Amino acid sequence: MTIYLPIAELPVAIFTILAMGLAVGFISGMFGVGGGFLMTPLLIFTGVPPAVAVASVSPYMAASSLSGALSYWRKGLVDTTLAWVLLSGGLVGTVSGVLLFLWLRSIGQVDLAIRLSYMLLLGAIGLLMLVESVRAILRARSGAPPSVRRPGTRPAFMRLPLKMRFRRSRIYISALPVIVIGYVIGLLGAVLGVGGGFILVPALIYLLRVPTQTSVGTSLVLTLVTMAAATVLHAVANGTVDAVLALVMMIGGTVGAQFGARTGQTLKAENLRLLLGLLVLSVALRVGAELVTAPGDTFAVTMVETVR
């Protein structure tokens, strides 16, 4: 059974989109990631224009982050002060990303920019995760203790001015790096349709020393707000949000996440990171292969109607 996507302007098999939503939702629940960095390339592989894929994944990401953010909020695991400072940079980054997206569309390079950015971003992250997880597995098998950074070591940006005390996270640092991190996440979300949790959570944990559960809860709040803002801005400025496509993805993703969460609880942390690294790297290679593979039709004919 096929449905017609009014914004993407093409018919798609509804069960294919549902299956993709189920698969990405399963992966999201199993690995604890948003899934936007996988859903957007999958939509592009099925023929959805990259501009529509990026914009339509934004409401999917906002909806998938809502339940998680509410759950962490009720448990008191959201640092509201940290979230506000992140959002001050994240919303500016979202607006910048939408404007950049609009400019790339105006010069006809948005598809190339999205594919190239995905290849570089996912390739780097997948490779780093793969190396780190393999080292952790080998270390665990040899019985060696895990490597721990000395507690007294602090990066140079910790000495920047405008220091703030984030009581829930139990840290006292400059607000400047927090704003910059929020800006980068908002920019990536608007341009690539990714929630940024797979970048934000490690940044909060390893750079700012925020507790893990507080990092996840605060990251979900940032993803929820920036993706909701990106949805509205893309719909108004670019007109590329396909509500039908987003709704079908939400249904599949919600169901798949429940099964993925149960499966993820049975695997070791280092094995989960290894599988996720392989998955991210494979998607990056697939996107890169499309960039260098010659298309089936080397010529395109555009019909232009002359009005007299």
Topology:
Layout: E1 2-5, E2 10-13, H1 14-31, H2 36-45, H3 50-74, H4 80-106, H5 110-142, E3 163-166, E4 171-174, H6 175-192, H7 197-207, H8 212-238, H9 243-264, H10 269-292
Antiparallel strand pairs: 1-2, 3-4
Helix pairs in contact: 1-2, 1-9, 2-3, 3-8, 3-9, 4-6, 4-8, 5-10, 6-8, 7-8
Quick structural gist:
This protein has 308 residues and is mainly alpha-helical.
Averaged pLDDT: 76
Biggest sheet statistics:
2 strands, antiparallel
C-alpha geometry: globular
Residues in β-strands, percent: 5-15%
Number of helices: 10
Helix content class: 55-70%
Span between termini = 42 Å
Helix/strand-derived category reads mainly alpha
Q: In what order do the strands lie side by side in the largest sheet?
A: 1-2
The figure for the number of domains is 1
* Residue runs with pLDDT of under 50 for 5 or more positions: 148-153, 300-308
Number of strands: 4
Radius of gyration, taken over Cα atoms and rounded to an integer in Å:
20 Å
Order of helices and strands: EEHHHHHEEHHHHH
Structure overview:
With 308 residues, the protein is mainly α. The protein has one domain. 70% of the residues lie in helices and 5% in strands. It is built from ten helices and four strands, in the order E-E-H-H-H-H-H-E-E-H-H-H-H-H. Strands 1-2 form a two-stranded antiparallel ribbon. A hairpin with a 4-residue loop joins strand 1 (2-5) and strand 2. Helix 3 (50-74) packs antiparallel against helix 8 (212-238) and helix 4 (80-106) runs parallel beside helix 8 (212-238). The protein starts with a strand and ends in a 16-residue tail after the last helix. InterPro entries: TM_pro_TauE-like, TSUP/Inactive_protease-like. Keywords: Cell membrane, Membrane, Transmembrane, Transmembrane helix. It is a multi-pass membrane protein. Its main location: membrane.
